[in-house]
Amino acid sequence: MDQQALGTVLQTTMAQVYTGALVVADVLLLLLKIFYFIGDAIYRLFVPTKEKDVTGEIVLVTGAGHGIGKELALKYASLGATVVCWDLNQETNQETVAEIKKMGGTAAYAYKCDVSNREEVLKVAERVKEEVGNVTILINNAGIMPCHAFLDHTPEEIRKMFDINVLAHFWILQAFLPSMIARNYGHIVALSSIAGIVGLANLVPYCATKFAVRGFMEALHEELRESSKGKNLNINFTTIYPYMVDTGLCKKPRIKFPSLLAMVPPKEAANIIITAQRRNWRNISIPRYWSTLNAVLRNLPEKALLCIKDFFDSGLEPTIYIH
């Protein structure tokens, strides 16, 4: 081997060693980061992050005329936020605003809006920007939950469910996300459901919509995270997975162990949601143990998982449906 060939071999070998060393260093750094964030997560179980102050924030709540939405609006108002209430039922929406104004010390606005109608969403959103200001906290809460066997759902009912439970998130975010991106500031909260984690009988279309919300929030967060590399992203995402909440949507609940799996009062659900938003939690179930329990159970053999489901025997009975 001549001297030139030997030099080439040495250069190639050194390059391979250098590349290998870089890979090892990158892997070690990755492992350090993983262990650090695992440790931080364990620490935060005992010492939670301090809750953000929401005084002066402009909070928009959809479905604010009743149930969880109403309780969210009242609670945010009590914390000093300006509250924008959206609902298709303007009468109950106005009642929510009237209750807020009785509390005093905070501003509240009621807007009638069909969130399934893109043109109406964009139009009402412009009014909000002009009359109130830029929304900084958005709570996508509005939803419907017809409960029938799959083959009993009409095409119109299924489309309406997707229009309200899924597509409304797209239209509302298209209206308000640009201003959040421009200011690199905001918080988006979406209500999925336990039915967005686990498939349930008599709720096939509803489960599909709530799985869609889960995917929508995860993908949108990742898109913004990737597009903001090089700067600190200050637009936060929180997805909520409630169990059965006593809002009137669960008309015929089936609960084998009420002491363990009782329906959640709307006020309790709203308090958990606001805590999650103020602590920047990405995902939270109501009750909180549900998401952890599901993660564990999903690693069991399928037949073992089905045995556990059958043992607890909780869900919703179909409502009477006449074609």
TrEMBL record:
Topology class, membrane: Multi-pass membrane protein
Family the entry assigns: Belongs to the short-chain dehydrogenases/reductases (SDR) family.
Protein name: Short-chain dehydrogenase/reductase 3
Cellular location(s): Membrane
A Pfam family reported for this protein in Swiss-Prot or TrEMBL: adh_short
An MF annotation (GO) of this entry: all-trans-retinol dehydrogenase (NADP+) activity
Function: Catalyzes the reduction of all-trans-retinal to all-trans-retinol in the presence of NADPH.
Keywords linked to the UniProt accession: Lipid metabolism, Membrane, NADP, Oxidoreductase, Transmembrane, Transmembrane helix
Transmembrane segments: 17-38, 188-208
Classification via Gene3D superfamilies: NAD(P)-binding Rossmann-like Domain (3.40.50.720)
Originating species: Odynerus spinipes
CDD domains: 17beta-HSDXI-like_SDR_c (cd05339)
GO cellular component entries: lipid droplet; membrane
